[in-house]
């Protein structure tokens, strides 16, 4: 508990998490408002459409998570941390927990803010959350962001430089996985198992939250069920974190 | 007591610290002296468990750093003043450190007061001058009221007022019975603050002794002689095996005590205009001792043979 408090003080006593949180909210809220306000009979406002922009917010949260650890390396506070807490595994696990919790909170606010804005803009559209798929599509954004943040932080520990780590995380998240589909033949089969594609499956399911409308979020090609998809991505995040912590323990700080 | 045994650190094929063994005694200021690049910082990082030694161990009070429970309460350290997040306030920086070792939040205000940063406690540390950062670092080191304090080049880059403050501060810490281990590449600085010296060069131990011994050994070697009768005095000096170096207006004599030179002058009826032990030039002497172990020579003729220590320190 002490270590969690330490990491909370560290994270919230700098400005970047606040700016990142604000950016994530403005980006997703603004984008959702634009999309939903332009909806019509052909492109109806659905629960799925309210979360159209969640991945933008998630990208910003991943930047936050990466920075939370790379700035420690940049400014040498990681050494002060290891000096105060020689058990590096405990210190970094506490950091991951705090970052995941913060990402969870931002993710939930982001998702429900977008959904709330949509219901204000289109009061007569059917945006009620009345199925599991609807709920996961909105409330699932929080856990998805939390796990994505852990992945980003693990990359931050491994790379240590802000620019390098952020580029790696964003390029992979926004472009690299989709480029794999361009490989003839096996591309699509590999893509099915790539982590962020699978995570997207958890959030969007088979598109039930779009009420059958084609207009909504593009769907994941993963063949896992939403809960298995979440478990798969969680395992990916934990393994990556474990590797990064093991590396940090061996390395000179 | 700090004890290093056969401490070795290798980076690639370069030995930064080479089979280094020494002890730091309790309740004193011990200077850790060596030219730049001698491995002082690496050794101190290994003491704090930040770098893993390639071989050997270093213990503090018989325990490795990683075995200490709430280490900030046993060992306070300032290795680098800039190890602070620039957007975090001085108070927040100390607050998380205090929290991590279950130190009372009240202690944060106490140490801020000790180092004189109370007024800027809520300002972002990125706006601090080097001197202020150094004070913040010292506040962090004092946070757990530790028995042992490590400082790496604490006066580097400070203005004279800051240097004086640090110097007095170290003495105060030792007076309180704490063990202070402080590194520097300036012998003149260490001669003022440390009672014991551990001297290293190229990662190897050169000597471990009291400061007095080291300074005596380092400086009693040359005597300056001016005389109108050098033609008579010089052969006499040669006969007793002295090393004689002519200078502009006299001789620099090594290997013979001043008294002996005086007696020789008397015997040879030579008038002496000057007979002066070259005391001040600590830096010069330090370089004689560590000379071969400086990592990167600049091949500059040092012009400081006659400069007092203070000057030598500034030019360094």
UniProtKB/TrEMBL annotation, chain A:
Name-wise, this protein is ABC-2 type transport system permease protein
Keywords in UniProt for this one? Membrane, Transmembrane, Transmembrane helix
Annotated TM spans:
51-71, 92-115, 135-159, 166-187, 227-248
Domain of life according to the entry: Bacteria
What species is this protein from?
A: Prauserella isguenensis
UniProtKB/TrEMBL annotation, chain B:
Which SUPFAM superfamilies does the UniProt entry name for this protein?
P-loop containing nucleoside triphosphate hydrolases
PROSITE patterns from the xrefs? ABC_TRANSPORTER_1, ABC_TRANSPORTER_2
Q: Where is the ABC transporter domain?
A: 2-227
Q: Which Pfam families match?
A: ABC_tran (PF00005)
What domain of life does the UniProt record list for this protein's source?
Bacteria
TM helices/strands, residue ranges: none
Give the record's keywords alphabetically.
Answer: ATP-binding, Nucleotide-binding, Transport
- SMART domains reported for this sequence: AAA (SM00382)
Q: What GO terms are given for molecular function?
A: ATP binding; ATP hydrolysis activity
Similarity comment: family membership: Belongs to the ABC transporter superfamily.
Its protein name is: ABC-2 type transport system ATP-binding protein
